[in-house]
């Protein structure tokens, strides 16, 4: 069975990320083990992050971020033939990690935080993940508000996209991310997930990243590590609406789910309508 989706496994080398903060911080053996596990379980991309961007997180210095991330990237690249994505907002971090063999830059600010990031990506030919967000991690959940979240996110994603295109990044090297959980209320995350097809721009791939996020817990009243089933429900909706790249903590479980779900979708032209029909 040929896969028509890709999985990005999360590897945070931070002390304070919301789900696995501290688990891999400063421990190279655990970092390598996590990378190996992501690949073994079906992940094609490893997303390495050295600065937490959870709601309320404070910015760290470029030097601190580099000290955390460089050993991880160096050792993953030495050992594995895998796509390495760098979760960073800083051009110097992007520049140095791409020089070490990283392939993607996953910028949660959509190029707003550091205006040089699009230029670095264009010069190196790397892939850019351009995400929608507002404000910064420290303040983004301070009363976010949308009149029409679908149209506003689409319009603001278009602006971010243009920022990267204007810098010379190739259209074929850009992936868009609606920014689930970033400056979004519960209802915004639900609305975006259920209507992801309405924010598609041309033929740009969509990356969907909802793994273990708070809006899932708001629906099922669960702790951070108990959100797998709710997360898979969100993955199903996003897949039906066109997302094909998924950033997740639980790689094997998501892979197994999508292998079956995508096969069902491929063999039922009515599945999409049935999933959202009100006529039960």
Strand content: 5-15%
Tally of DSSP β-strands: 8
Shape: globular
Instruction: Count the DSSP helices.
Output: 10
Question: What's the gist of this structure?
Answer:
With 280 residues, this protein is α/β, with parallel strands linked by helices. It has helices at residues 28-40, 62-79, 91-99, 117-124, 149-166, 186-194, 214-220, 228-240, 251-266, 271-276, and strands at residues 6-12, 45-49, 83-87, 104-107, 127-131, 174-177, 207-208, 245-248.
Describe the protein's architecture and organization.
There is one protein chain. With 280 residues, the protein is of the alpha/beta class. The protein has ten helices and eight strands. Helix 1 (28-40) packs across helix 2.
List keywords for this structure.
eight-stranded parallel beta sheet, 10 helices, globular, 280 residues, alpha/beta, single chain
